[in-house]
Write a structure and sequence with these properties.
The complex is a heterodimer. By secondary structure, chain A is mainly alpha-helical. Chain A has a domain of 97 residues. Chain A has 17 helices and no strands. In chain A, helix 14 packs antiparallel against helix 15. Chain B is of the alpha/beta class. Chain B has 6 helices and 7 strands, in the order E-H-E-E-H-E-H-E-E-E-H-H-H. Chain B has a 7-stranded mixed beta sheet. In chain B, a hairpin with a 2-residue loop joins strand 6 and strand 7. The longest helix of chain B has 18 residues. The radius of gyration of chain B is 16 Å and the shape is globular. Classes of the chains: A mainly alpha, B alpha/beta. Chains A and B meet through helix 11, helix 13, helix 15, helix 16 and helix 17 of A and helix 2 of B. Chain A: It is a peripheral membrane protein. Chain A: Belongs to the EMC2 family. Chain A: Part of the endoplasmic reticulum membrane protein complex (EMC) that enables the energy-independent insertion into endoplasmic reticulum membranes of newly synthesized membrane proteins. Chain A: Component of the ER membrane protein complex (EMC). Chain A: This is ER membrane protein complex subunit 2.
């Protein structure tokens, strides 16, 4: 089988840079990471210098991801035994180099999680926490185990306790908002997103997600809030399509409601009309030179038209 | 009459599930609109010719779902399709019951099609060889969703569906599958998946 570098005509530096980009962006494209990482490690280890350790870690986690589900052993057959070997090799190398490292111990725990040996994994993390009670990584892994086991209530409780201590942990706030959304507890999800918006006022994604939660909660007040935050998200990033659609939907619903004042109705019709024009424009831009996308453009136009009727 | 799945519909559902193994995924099933009902009142099984993958990750938020339903409804009218079902794979691979989201969307579909079904994908049994069907089909009876036993009758042609799905999984076609979330990230991404549809056709 041809190597990746042969197939795609890339050098080892490009592969290394790709891996770094995926690390920085926290991408979960595990199969690709294993493919690229494995080749890089087996063919070019000597050229990587100290980068190799972080690459071992990255590849190991990706390898666990590939063989984690039960689809593992039977399904991704060649990838999984491949991937399992890869994860074992990476772990062995890391253990040799960093024998007492908690960071490496966390990886051992993750491997146990991947094999669904949750009790052992928990014991492992507890041991780390005994030596170092401030080790946030181990605590978060324990919470992930709860989520993996479907124990949402416990995961939520533990995450809340964690956040009382580590109130600045954005990843944790976001995870908590997701858990609440999955439990349909939109009020608490909104609270988490409010925390995130406060500490990241320029992040359009948090604004937009907050708006979506408010919209889902329903009721005129929430709908208006949703509209405001969709608009805010757009101010921060005028290409956020979700925010644009959200603005359109919330303004349309407000305008169509029999309970609003004439002024509110008029204002929201304006907002909706503006959003509709922007949506049409965005689709036209995207569809340029692409025959097949014409159907999307038409569908959007018709959708916007049909909603206009309900508003008036 | 209960729904039946074509190879294209089945394989795209599984590709969507395989693309995001760590997330919940969902989508809609569509069938061709038939004009007349047969005289004796019994129509044949409803054939789901295609599916539209919707979201992955957080499924429980309303606004984008509304947009998707409205847009896809319009698209259906253009192509003489009708939305006849909803599919979902849960984040928890061990749990294949239709949750609140599934029931809510399905209720909406029921308003326009009285024999709508919920198809739950059992991702714990997802394999490359696809040697058995891994879906649970739920029909609406007496205000409840009841699961029906899935045999190869639930497919227009099971051996073809199996062959095609397996080939596309092995070939990692799921990497190029586009769902509505991907479309919202970049409007150029086409949620009708013409390339994958072509691959399916080529393998038939």
């Amino acid at each position: 089988m041809a190597s990746l570098s042969e197939m795609y005509d890339v050098g080892w530096e490009e592969m290394r840079d790709k891996l770094r980009k995926w690390r920085e962006d926290n991408c979960r494209n595990s199969e690709q990471i294993v493919d690229v990482g494995e080749e890089l490690i087996s063919e070019h280890a000597s050229k990587l210098g100290d980068d190799i350790w972080i690459i071992y870690e990255q590849v190991m986690i990706a390898a666990l991801d590939c063989s984690r589900d039960d689809l593992a052993l039977v399904s991704f057959r060649h990838t999984s035994s491949h991937a399992q070997k890869a994860s074992q090799t990476c772990l062995q190398e890391l253990r040799k180099q960093f024998p007492d490292s908690h960071r490496v111990k966390r990886l051992t725990g993750m491997r146990l999680e991947a094999l669904e040996r949750y009790d052992e994994a928990n014991k492992h993390y507890d041991a780390i926490l005994q030596e170092d009670p401030t080790n946030t990584a181990a605590r978060k892994r324990k919470i992930s185990i709860l989520r993996a086991q479907g124990k949402s209530t416990e995961a939520i409780r533990e995450l809340n306790e964690y956040l009382e201590q580590f109130v600045g942990d954005q990843e944790a706030w976001h995870e908590l908002s997701e858990l609440y959304i999955n439990e349909h507890d939109y009020g608490k999800a909104a609270f988490c997103l409010e925390e995130l918006m406060m500490t990241n006022p320029h992040n359009h994604l948090y604004c937009e997600q907050y708006a979506e939660v408010k919209y889902t909660q329903g009721g005129m007040e929430n709908l208006e809030l949703a509209r405001k935050y969709f608009a805010q998200a757009l101010r921060l990033n005028n290409r956020n399509m979700r925010a644009l659609f959200g603005l359109y939907m919330s303004a349309s619903h407000i305008a169509a409601s029999p309970k609003v004042s004439a002024k509110l109705k008029k204002d929201n019709i304006k907002y909706a009309a503006w959003a509709a024009a922007q949506i049409n424009r965005a689709y036209k831009l995207a569809g340029r030179g692409n025959k097949e996308n014409k159907c999307s453009i038409k569908a959007v136009e018709e959708m916007l038209e049909s909603m206009q009727i309900t508003m008036s | 009459m209960p729904i039946q799945l074509t190879s294209q519909a089945y394989c795209k559902m599984l590709l969507h599930t395989a693309k995001y193994p760590h997330c919940a995924v969902n989508g809609l099933l569509v069938a061709e609109k038939t004009k007349e009902k047969k005289k004796d009142g019994h129509s044949g099984p409803v054939l789901c010719v295609d599916c539209v993958p919707l979201f992955h990750g957080t499924l429980a938020l309303a606004p984008m779902l509304e947009v998707a339903l409205t847009l896809i409804d319009t698209w259906c009218k253009e192509n003489n399709y009708i939305i006849v079902g909803y599919y979902q794979a849960n984040e928890q691979t061990k749990d294949s019951r239709p949750n609140q989201v599934a029931q809510k969307v399905a209720a909406r579909i029921l308003e326009n099609f009285s024999e709508a079904a919920i198809v739950m994908v059992d991702s714990s049994r997802l394999t490359m060889s696809c040697f058995e069907p891994i879906v649970f089909i739920h029909d609406h009876h007496e205000n409840k969703w009841k699961v029906r036993e899935v045999t190869t009758d639930a497919f227009e042609d099971w051996s073809e569906a199996q062959k095609i799905t397996s080939a596309l999984l092995v070939g990692r076609s799921y990497e190029s599958l586009i769902d509505f979330d991907n479309h919202l990230d970049d409007l150029r991404n086409d949620w009708t998946n013409p390339t994958i549809n072509k691959s399916v056709l080529d393998l038939c």
